[in-house]
Structure formats: C-alpha cells, structure tokens
Design goal:
The protein has one domain: Helix Hairpins (Orthogonal Bundle). The chain has two helices and no strands. The chain is elongated and about 60 Å long. By secondary structure, the chain is mainly alpha-helical. The longest helix has 32 residues.
C-alpha cells in the first residue's frame, strides 16, 4: 500500500513494526537504514494527516456568522 494513501492508523501500525524490528537489534545495517528511511517517511505522513485533521476540526468549529470558534481541547 502506498504510504501517502494509507490511513493514520495503518501508518502508525507499520511504524510500530519498524520500531520493534530495530529494537530487537538483529536487523543488518543496510536493512536498518531502509527501515529508518521508511519510518521517517511514515512520521512525515502521520504529521501531514494530523495537520489535515486539525484543519477539518477548525472548519467544523465555526460560529453561525462564520467567525471561528476556537476552543482549547481539554487535557486528559
């Protein structure tokens, strides 16, 4: 699956697989470099997806007159 078209959850799942593989320490250097490169691309894509989601939330959170209704999210 193309990482750019994957869901946030699918990207995170693949990123977790990469981290586990690299933490085991049994991956050859060349493969580790490939995994690292893939991981950095996944992080970049996840950031992009989060930015897009934030824009969607801001669009939804508008007052009746069209002015923004920005509210802080409660900390959990």
């Amino acid at each position: 699956m193309n990482q750019e078209n994957a869901t946030f959850e699918a990207n995170m799942q693949r990123l977790e697989q990469i981290v586990r593989a690299m933490e085991r320490g049994d991956v050859p250097l060349e493969e580790s470099l490939k995994l690292f490169q893939e991981g950095t691309e996944l992080v970049r894509n996840c950031g992009k997806l989060l930015d897009e989601a934030e824009l969607q939330v801001k669009k939804v959170m508008t007052a009746a007159d069209g002015s923004p209704m920005l509210e802080d999210m409660p900390n959990e």
